[in-house]
Design goal:
Radius of gyration: 26 Å
Structural class: mainly alpha
Number of helices: 2
Largest sheet: none
Strand content: under 5%
Number of strands: 0
Distance between the termini: 88 Å
Shape: rod-shaped
Helix content: 55-70%
Length: about 60
């Protein structure tokens, strides 16, 4: 009975450690995703162009 108990305890601890590492990885990826969603296109490289009506000072200086 001792051997079976040891195997069950070891497998339970291994499962808990594996789920903990997986959860930590998901947590870090979520924080990275939130950061990229806010700052990903900060310079509007991939914007749809809907901001063309609001030109900046530089455009008015060139006219």
């Amino acid at each position: 009975m001792k051997r079976e108990t040891g195997i069950l305890v070891a497998s339970s601890l291994g499962l808990l450690v594996g789920l903990g590492v997986y959860g930590f990885k998901l947590f870090l990826n979520k924080k990275d995703t939130d950061y990229k969603a806010y700052y990903g296109d900060y310079h509007r490289h991939f914007d749809d162009g809907s901001y063309d009506d609001h030109h900046g000072v530089e455009l008015y200086a060139m006219q």
